[in-house]
Amino acid sequence: MKPFVFFGGKGGVGKTTVSCAYAQKCADAGVETLVVSTDPAHSVSDVFDQQFGDAPESVEGIDGLSALEIDPDEEVTAHLDDIRNRLSDQVSASMVNEINKQLEMAHQTPGAYESALFDRFVEVMRNSDPYDRVVFDTAPTGSTLRLLGLPEFLESWVERLMHKRRQSIDLFEKAAVGNNEPRRVMDGDPVLARLQERKEFFEFAGGALREDAAFFLVLNPDQLSVNETERAIADMDDEGLAVRGLVANKLTPSPDDDENGRGARYLRDRVETERERLDHVRESLDAPLLAEIQSRTREVKGDLLTEVANELDVEVGVEEPAFV
Length: 324
Ligand SMILES: Nc1ncnc2c1ncn2[C@@H]1O[C@H](COP(=O)(O)OP(=O)(O)OP(=O)(O)O)[C@@H](O)[C@H]1O
Ligand SMILES: [Mg+2]
Description:
The chain is α/β, with parallel strands linked by helices and about 325 residues long. Strand 7, helix 10 and strand 8 form a beta-alpha-beta unit. The mean pLDDT is about 85. The structure holds adenosine-5'-triphosphate and magnesium ion (MG).
C-alpha cells in the first residue's frame, strides 16, 4: 500500500470512522501512522475520546498511532492572513485597506475552503517524515484535483509573467534612476519568487498524489451514495488518479432465519435491496469492493473500532515511496 491513503465519500458515510479503523489497523501492524481529520463536527477526537489539534499527537493506548485535526475554517483564515502579510510588504499603505476588503470577500468564495484544505494536505504530506503512513479522512474534491494540472499551465504563465515583470522592473529602474543599464533586481523579486514557489508546490502535490497516494471511497448501500461514488470515480479518473477500492459501510444486518416478526421482515427486505445495489457496485463500478461493514447500534469507537478494523480488507504494508 502507498504511504498516503485517502478515504473520500459524501457527507456522513463513515469516512472518519473507516479512516480511524484503518489507521489503527496500520499501527497494530507496526506501521508508524498518522491519521489526519478535517472535520470539526465528528472527528478523530470523538472516535478516540481524546482532543487533538493542529499538531500531531500520540493516540493514547494505541502504539504507533498519532492524530492531527485540521480546522478548515482556521486554514482559510490563516491562508488569507498569509496573503495579506505578503502583500502588505509589497504595496503602499493606501492599498492595504483595499486588499483587506478583497480578502474578506475571498474568504466567502466557493472553493476557498477546499483550496485551503488542499494546501494543508500537501503541507502534511511534505512533512510526513516521522510516519510510514498518513491516512486522510477526506479525499481532495474534483475542483481541488483540477489544481494538479496547474504546474503545466503555470509553467508558461510564469514564464510570460517573468518576462512582463522583467520589463516593468527595467522600466521602473530606468525611470527612477535614468539609467540605461538597470540593476539586476530580478533575483530578489518577491512576486516572481512567490509564483515559482506555487508552481513547485503543485508539482510536488501532483507527484505525491499520483505516485505515492492511494484513494478509497466509502459508500453506504443507498442509491444516492452509489451514484455519487460512480461520479467520484469518473472525476478522479479525469485527473489521472485511480480509485484503489471501495468500502461499503452501514449495511443492514440480517435477522436470524427463524425470526419472522415485522422488524425481521423489514430487515430482510432491506438486506435484499442492499445486496442488489452492492451487486451492481461489484459489476459496474471501476474499483473493487474491499469491505462490507455492518451498521452497529452504537457509535463506532473502542472495541467496535477494532471490530471494524478487522473487517477492512485493505492492505497495510508500506511500499517504498516513489516520489516523496
Ligand atoms: N458501521 C457503522 N455503524 C454504526 N454507526 C456508524 C458506522 N459507521 C459510522 N457510523 C456513525 O455514523 C456517523 C458518521 O460517521 P463518520 O463521522 O465516520 O462519517 P464521515 O463520512 O466522516 O462524515 P462527515 O462527512 O460529516 O465527515 C458517526 O456518528 C459514526 O459513529
Ligand atoms: Mg468525517
